[in-house]
Specification:
The chain is mainly alpha-helical and 245 residues long. The protein is built from 13 helices and no strands. It is 68% helix and 0% strand. The N and C termini lie far apart (49 Å).
Length: 245
Amino acid sequence: MGLISKLFAAGLGFVVAGPIGALIGLFLSSSFTNNKLSNYNNSEKRTNNTAEGDFKVSLLVLIACVMKADGKVKRNELDVVKRFLVRNFSEDESLEALQILKRLLQENINEIEVAMQISNYMNYSTKLELIHLLLDIAYADNELSNVELTLIKRIADVFAITQADFISLNSMYHKSKDDKWMYKVLQIDPSASDEEVKKAYRRMAMKYHPDKVAASGEEAKKSATEKFRKINEAYEEIKKSRGLK
């Protein structure tokens, strides 16, 4: 079963409408679009609620937005995204996802309209995962441009992601450049007391627990697990520097 079939099997909710719905037709064959999508739109089971397939479709559309941010798509960027897709999808699904992405890259996508549609239906934790994955891709080739970062921040603003949460996510990629990265990840000041550090860790661990995005599918949960690991890494780094146990 290919990625498209799995998306429909997993269920599509809000993405079959609005600007994202308009893009879905670009990567479905005409026969699939006219039959499956039409039937799905007319089904009584269809709702505008978030379904597992929504996360995958939204992610692919947002990846296309980031890759097009600087006006050109480089070969090394496609290689980075391909490796990312292989990690988060099966090998067969990742190849199909890459073809979908290539089609999306040929289109003019209004990232604000897309982000607004996503923001209206996804919960805060799931939107955090989308931003986390976009940063993951943007930093993967060690060539993050200001244009890419600005676009991701613009999407995060539409998602109503707090500045503290965005800085926390972004700081996870600055371990080698910022000796205070772990404090920024936990959203505290380096002058915080040991007890404040422990409280901050507990708060962040609860906030970013993978179970909060379980309904969005394995891809979201994998991302959340990785983010959760980085929260723990930041906490362990602080404990080590302070001699805490």
